[in-house]
Amino acid sequence: AASRVEKACLSRAGGRVAAMPQSGPRPRGGRPSLTSAAAFALATAASAPRAAHAFYLPGVAPIEYLEGGKVELKVNKLTSVKTQLPYGYYVLPYCQPESVQDSIENLGEILVGDMIENSPYEISMLQNISCKVLCRKDLKPEEKDKFRSMIEDEYTVNWLVDNLPGATRYTRRGSDASFTYMNGFPVGIERNMRYYVHNHVKLLLQYHSSPYDYEGYRIVGFEVEPHSMVQAVRSDPSEPSGLSGMCHEGAATPLYDLDQHTDIVFTYDVVWMESAQRWASRWDNYLKMTGGQIHWFSILNSLMIMLFLSGMVAMILLRTLYRDITKYNELATAEEAAEETGWKLVHGDVFRKPRHSKLLAVSVGSGMQIMGMSVVTLIFALFGFLSPAHRGALLQSMMLLFTFMGILEIGRA
Fold it and tell me: How far is CA 304 from the centre of its chain?
């Protein structure tokens, strides 16, 4: 019995523990021998590093979906690099669920300005969908004007699936065929004063599975391919929207021109693709995102103001020092030379209470508060507690740390 226990322990340890011979007969009373206890202890120690891989930080644990399980798509604010003014997703006449519910989870998301809400998109794990009609809506003149304004200002739509933001892939021209990502996808495009709305999207969802580590599937990628097209729609009572559509992609398909239609049909495709990328590294693709439009005029304006103010302060200091130095360099009598004047009086000012001492104490204390907040935030970021998967965690932690670091300010003051 003892040898069977040893063999079982050795097999669970993955063969990393060598077989140990019996040092004596089995003791009475049915207790295992010392050899069995030692083998069990070594097997437990050998298998301990494997258990360490199952640790995840709070709030960023992966979600496993079973086949056919519901995958929720959430919508976020509409953003633009030109206006810097965000809008809610349902400001435009998009398809809405029966009841719109907010999904804000923490203070950081509120401070950033996120407007996360639910959507009517129906997505199931590993179930592909082709040209499913979401809804058909009649467009009023003011709604068309809203679309035109959003397209002119280059507004982008932001979606979330499993806390992953939707990204649009752009392939660079050239022989290397490299690509980059952009956060979200445009509301539409403008060509020759004609406005085309993206009313069809293809959702490319990547998943990863490892039956030996966990049960189910994990989402590791979310891409969106926007299209503008005129779909063929017919009545179908079996569909939730009451309509079924046919979508044809390609150059021969007419684009949806906003000025030539009085209604709009929204459709979508869902394509699931298996990926070798693990859940822990699924944010690596977002490092390939291109930055937004750089506001060079604002940067130059701020730089010029800073240089102008610095030059004014430097001129005032130079004039004051020049006048003092000229005065001290003049010939003085013996009595004047014996007196302590000018810079010689500095030793008397060292121990003198400065003017506006309370303001000085507050400034020093606030500096210590900000420095303490920055150091602790960087330490937590290095340990991975401020993962981008936890939206708003960085700003929320900075606000809380700035509040708690007021203890340092009180101490310094």
Answer: 33
H or E segment to which residue 301 belongs: helix 296-329
Distance CA 84, CA 381 (A): 27
Reduce the DSSP state of residue 217 to 3 states and report it.
Answer: strand
pLDDT digits (tens, 9 = 90+) for 303-354: 888 898 998 988 988 888 887 777 766 655 555 555 555 555 666 666 677 7
Q: Decide if 254 contacts 192 (C-beta within 8 A).
A: no
pLDDT value of residue 7: 40
How distant, in Å, are the alpha carbons of 62, 72, 127, 133, 291 from that of 273?
Answer: 18, 17, 11, 22, 27
**Is residue 118 packed enough to be buried (19+ CB in 10 Å), middle (13-18) or exposed (0-12)?**
middle
Q: How crowded is the C-beta side of 244, counted as CA atoms within 13 Å?
A: 7
- Report the alpha-carbon angle 169-382-59, nearest 5: 70
Q: What does the alpha-carbon distance between residue 49 and residue 53 come to, in Å, rounded to a whole number?
A: 7
Task: Supply the pLDDT for residue 218.
Answer: 92
- Which residue is it, tokens 């239609």? 261
The number of residues making up the chain comes to 413
With 0-12 CB in 10 A as exposed, 13-18 as middle and 19+ as buried, what is 10?
buried
Check: CB of residue 229 under 8 Å from CB of residue 197: no
Contact 202, 227 (CB under 8 A): yes
The number of C-alpha atoms within 13 Å of 4 and in the hemisphere containing its C-beta is 1
**183/170 Cα distance (integer angstroms):** 11
Q: What is the pLDDT of residues 386-409, one digit of tens each?
A: 766 667 777 788 888 888 887 766
CA nearest neighbour of 94 among 112, 111, 77: 77
C-beta of residue 90 within 8 angstroms of C-beta of residue 96: yes
| Residue whose C-alpha is closest to residue 154's, from 189, 184, 181, 183 | 189
Residue ranges in the chain modelled with pLDDT below 70: 1-60, 104-105, 173-177, 250-252, 287-297, 328-351, 384, 387-390, 408-413
Q: How far apart are CA 281 and CA 64, in angstroms?
A: 16
The secondary element (H helix, E strand) that includes residue 46 is helix 34-52
C-alpha to C-alpha distance for 303 and 228, rounded to whole angstroms: 42
